Amino acid sequence: xxxxxxxxxxxxxxxxxxxxxxxxxxxxxxxxxxxxxxxxxxxxxxxxxxxxxxxxxxxxxxxxxxxxxxxxxxxxxxxxxxxxxxxxxxxxxxxxxxxxxxxxxxxxxxxxxxxxxxxxxxxxxxxxxxxxxxxxxxxxxxxxxxxxxxxxxxxxxxxxxxxxx
Length: 165
Fold this sequence. Notes:
The protein has 165 residues and is an alpha/beta fold. The chain is built from 6 helices and 7 strands. The chain folds into 2 domains: 2-72, Urease, subunit C, domain 1, CATH 2.30.40; 75-164, no CATH class. The chain has helices at 49-55, 88-95, 100-105, 110-119, 122-138, 154-164, and strands spanning 2-11, 31-39, 42-48, 60-63, 69-70, 74-79, 141-146. Strands 1, 2, 3, 4 and 5 form a 5-stranded mixed β-sheet that branches.
């Protein structure tokens, strides 16, 4: 069954853009008062809501209310978010002008994350990962590739991979 979803205040479809390189604002297509025509889970058309409604008069309508902008989800193609501990202190020190070696000498840095990740259980790592993934999703990141890397031994990396799975 065909369904028309909208009207969105704006739709930013990201069609016709270069696959790599910088994108200028004027290259972005913006569809005001846009709609999406779907059938089952397939998008058939993205266009002006009124135009789609006129072209498909018997379509089921899913009305969007309020000011809503629709754009594709963000992709994080390289993230090491399966870890224990917190790097907030490192971040603050870096912003204060400390070098990575100075941060490491004070007990921070990657080795601190490795130590805390090794001390965590698979269940703890899984729960921390789920929290971070949910935050990504709330911020518009809909696709992520999660990497291990804080175990630095076969057993610890396998523990991380199990938590990721």
